[in-house]
Amino acid sequence: MHESLDPTTTRPAAAPAPAVPAVVAQRDHGGDHAAVQAGPAAVTRLAATVESLRAELALARQDAAGRSLIEMAAGVLIERLGCGPTQAAAQLAALAEQADVPVLEFAADLVNQVAADKISAIARDFVSGSAERTDGPALRLRAAEAHSLAAGDSESVADSMLATALRPLGAVAVAIWAAHTDQSMTLEGSAGFGEAEARRWRHVPPGVSTPARRALDERETVVYPTLAQAGLPTIGQHEFTGGRIVVPAGTGGRLIGVLEVCWETLLPEQSQPLRRQFEALAELCAITLETGAGPGAVDDADREFEDLQRLTDGILDPCLVLRLAPGRAELPLEFAVRHVNPAFVDFAGRPASAVAGARLLEAYPLAAEAGGLAEKIEHVFATGEPFRTADMPLAATVDGVALHARAQVSINRHGRHVVVIWRLDDGTPRVARLLQHAQRLGRIGGFEEHLQSGQIAWNDTLYDLHGLPPTAQPIALLRLPDHAHPDDRPAIDRFLRTLLHHHRPASTAFRLQRPDGVARHIRVVAEPVHDHDAAVVTVRGAYQDISAQHWTEVALAAARDQLAHTEQQAAERNRLALQLQHAIMPPARGPLTLHDLEVAVRYRPAEKDHLVGGDWYDTLALPSGEILLCVGDVAGHGIEAATGMVALRNALRGLAATGAGPAQLLTWLNSVTHHLTDNVTATAVCALYHPTTRHLRWARAGHLPPVLLRDGRASTLPQPGGILLGALDHADYEEEHVDLAPGDTLVMFTDGLIERRDQSVQASLRALLALSEQTSRTQEDGTDDLEAHLDHLLRHSNADTDDDTCLVGISVHQSIHHELSTNPSQGFGA
C-alpha cells in the first residue's frame, strides 16, 4: 500500500486503515442528496496526485529561485563586461563549464564575490575553513534570497527557506513571526506545520511568554537543545519536541519580527558560521516583513492606517502621520507624510496639500539638523518610545527664506506609522501664511545684503523678477544702476545715497533691463540694519514688480483722455441738437387760441441729457380755413433724430398747404421720409379740423391714437390703418373722422407718456384713460382747464422708459359766430 501525504506537512502521513472500505462525500443541492463513493484505488490515485503536485510545486519554486540567482549573476556580468543580456547568459554558461561546476553554483559564487552582505561573508568563512569545495551555505542561502525576491508572500518565503536552506541542516519546520508595538505577535508565514496548528497560533496576544517573545525581549538569538528545556508554549510543541533556534529579525536597527526554526531531534552542532547562516535568513525575513508581504498584511496595514486617520482627524492640534519612505530601510531612516489632519496648520504658511504626500525632509529640510525633528522621529520609530517636549524649534524654507517657529511637540509610534503632533505659538502660522500670500500676490521678492562681507541672500521670487536662474549670482545694490534704464539712473543714485550714506530707509521706482531683453517696472524699498554700536552692517528690503500697475495707469490715462474727448464731442452734438430742437419747438407754455379751439402744448425731455429725442408737434391755420394738428416721433436720439424731426415737420407744413386730406398728407410724407432722409423712420398722427362744422378728419402712421374726453368719460379715437413712415417706398393710409362738441378735450401724445417695460401698450392706454377721467372729476369749478389737465397727465404718468414726451391738448369752446350745426350727441363717444 502506498503512503499518503498529509497536505499540511512535508512528512509522510499515517497510512489509512484497510478496514475502511470507502469514503462517502455528500452534497446538498436544494434538498436532493447525492452520494459519491470511492474505493481504495481512488484514495491511492488521489494520494499520488497530491504527491505529484507537491513535487511539481517544489520543482517550480526551485526553478524560480534558480532563475533569480542566475539573473543576479547575469546582471553582474552585464555591469562588469558592458555586454547585453544574451552575451552575459552565454558568458555565464561558458565560465561555469570552464570551472567544471554547475551554472547555479557558479552564479552563487559570482554573486558572493561582488556582494558585501552576510551571505557572502558566510561563504568566505566556509571556503577558508574547509579544504574541500562546498556547495552548502553559499548556494543554499543565495538560493533562499533569490526565492524571497521571487515569492509573493511570507508563506512562500517560509517554504523556500525550509526547502533550500534549512532542510539540509536537519530542520523540519520554520515560523516567521511579526512583532507589534502592543507586545503582541502574529504568524506571518510558516512551513512544516499542520494547517490547524498554524491557524491556532495565528495571533499571540501580549503577555504570553514564548521562545519568540523571549528572543525579542533579549534582542539576541535564543537556543534550546530540546523544547522541553525551554518550558514555554510555542507552535508545533506537541509535534516537534526537538531543538529550537529563535533569531530576532530586524532591519535598520529596528526589530520587527522573529525567525523560529524547529528540529525533530537534538540541534546540530552549533558553530559561529552556522549561527551567521541563521542571522542571514532572519534578515531576509525582516525584509519580507518590512515590505508587508505576509498574508493579510496589506489589509492589516490599511485597517491600521484607517484607524489612525480617524484618530488623528479628531485631534484639535496640527498632526502629521508619517510612514517609512519606500526604499529607505537603512539608517538614516527617511519618512514620508502620509496624512495631515483637518486641524493641520503649516507654520511656514503653505497649504496642507503642499505637505501631504511629500517626504518629511523635502517639506522641512531644516528638520535634519542634529537633535532636530527628524532625529527624534527616527528614534521613536526604532525604539517605540514616545517623545514629548514643551519647546522645540521648527524651521522651514519657503522661496529661499528660512521661517522659524517654536512649538510643543509629541511623537508616538503606531505600528508602521509615526504620529507627530505640534502646538504652535498663537499667531505664528497666521503671520507666516500672510507673509507667504503677500509675497505671492504682490510679486514681492526679499533680499538681505551684508555690507562688510558682500554676501547677498535672495528668495526665489527675486531671481524670477530679474530673469535670472536660481544658480546666478545676486546683484548687489551698488550695481543696480548697471541693470536699469539710463533715464532712471538719477533716481537710483538718490535711492542709494539716502540708504548707504544717510543711513535712512529709501524707496524708488525704475525700469529694470533684464538679460532676456524684457523691461520690467520695479519698485524697490530698503532699510539699513544697525548693530549694537549703531553701525550699519546689513541692508534688507524688497523688490516689487509694478509693471501691471504701471501699464494699467498708462491705459487709464489714455482712456481718460479719449473719454474726455468723446464726452466733449457728445456735449457739442447735444448742444446743437437742443438748439435745433428749441428753434423748431420753443418751450413756450402759454395756450394758443385758433377760432373755437384752445391749444396747449407740453414737452418733457428725456431724463438723460444726452438722449435728445425726435418728438415733434405742430398746430397751424391753413389757407383753406382748416387747422392742422399733428404729433410725431422720429426713431432714435441725438443729432440725427433732431434733424430728421425738422425735415418731417417742415415737409408736412408745406404739403398741408395743398389742401389734401390727412391720409394723402401721410402718403406724401412717407415718400419724403423714405427718399429724402438717411434711414429715418417715424410715427405720426395728422388731423385737420374744420372750425365751422367742428368736423375732425385724422390719419395715423403707426402712432398711438388720440384720447377724447367728453362729459367726464375718456376713450380713444378709432385707429385707422397705416404703417410707420419710411418703412416702405409707397404706403397707403386710412382716414377716420369725428364731430367734436363744445367742452370736448382731445389729447394727442407720443409714446413716452405711457410706455412701460413691464406691461403691454393696451394696458398702458387703459391706465391713461383712467387717469384722464380722474382729472376731469377733480376739477372743482366744473369748467375745463386744459393746461391743468396736461400737467396732471405728465405728473402722474407711470412711464419708465426715460423717453422724451410730447402732448398736444385741444379744447373745443362755444363759437360766438356760429350756431351748433349738428347735434353733439351724434358725435363720437356720446
UniProtKB/TrEMBL annotation:
InterPro entries: ANTAR, Bact_Sigma-Reg, GAF-like_dom_sf, PAS, PAS-assoc_C, PAS-like_dom_sf, PAS_fold_3, PPM-type-like_dom_sf
Domain PAC: 506-558
Keywords, comma-separated and alphabetical: Hydrolase, Transcription, Transcription regulation
UniProt protein name: SpoIIE family protein phosphatase
Domain of life: Bacteria
ANTAR domain ranges (all copies): 50-111
Cited SMART domains: ANTAR, PP2C_SIG
A Pfam cross-reference name: PAS_3
CDD domains: PAS (cd00130)
Residue ranges of coiled coil: none
